């Protein structure tokens, strides 16, 4: 070999070495609300991710996993798209994850195919997100999924007339439609439907409308955070409960981290949801211990942590299946039909919709032996798919 050829071979080997070394680290970009009014929800994403990595290691098949967090304090599709673009182009992430609000997820889906990047959604809960790109997988829930069992539950508890009150955007509308469908199929009647702007924080006019409707119960959905706390407080404090108007909602409205602020007024509130921090299983015990450590105290834990924990499980499987190489289709194909025991119970990724199939639990706010309020699981609806996708 000539000197020149030798040099070329050496440079080639060096380059190949560099490329291989660079491919060794797999970057995951996670978008969520890490500051502002919804910061606790984002911190729960981070706690779920950190708990997963603490329990399962920080590398997959020799590929180090590096997580990059990007803060999106409130629903803001333009900013969401810009953050995703920056993660893809500048940070060269192979996977996107997180995303709390539906409009932010919708804004990212058009980027995925060209970027050859899967998006694993840890929260955003509108059914239709899944139809926007074949590269989306979701480990949270949909509001149609969590809400549908409530229709029958309401009838069984003697409720015949309901007023619905939901935030006027994707997951609220899905919740309203799914509840109405299930409740009317079981023989009930929705007498009025109120859609509240996302920015609403004075709920007294809504409470008056609920009272005036003379319904037996209110069905409500708002995205978990300061808004849900405000709504449930208003329900508790404006005498609707005393007036005998019952409360029905998915578990977004009684997330564990809000219960101390709601106080004893929350006792007896009925909700349906995919996850309660109190879920009694060895997998959940392990998860709660690790996630509490990551977030700095069990009292801050809430459902976004479990979406993130299972989201990382899916991303780890994708990294394993692609041996650290960037191949979004192969990665997504590898998790279709994947089944495991989550801290929430048995789950699987529906191979058709790429959305998580899971148990939905009926829970009641109760007090534990230490006087702390918690969501007590009292009934299980096993292996629920997303009914929202079936109707679209
Ligand atoms: C959503 O925007 O999809 C969303 C946000 C918070 C929730 C549920 C759904 O609690």
TrEMBL record:
SUPFAM superfamilies: Periplasmic binding protein-like I. The keyword Signal applies. Keywords: Amino-acid transport, Signal, Transport. One of its GO terms (biological process) is amino acid transport. Residues 25-368 form the Leucine-binding protein domain. Residues 1-22 form the signal peptide. Belongs to the leucine-binding protein family. PANTHER family: LEUCINE-SPECIFIC-BINDING PROTEIN, PERIPLASMIC BINDING PROTEIN OF ABC TRANSPORTER FOR NATURAL AMINO ACIDS. This is ABC transporter substrate-binding protein. It comes from Microvirga thermotolerans.
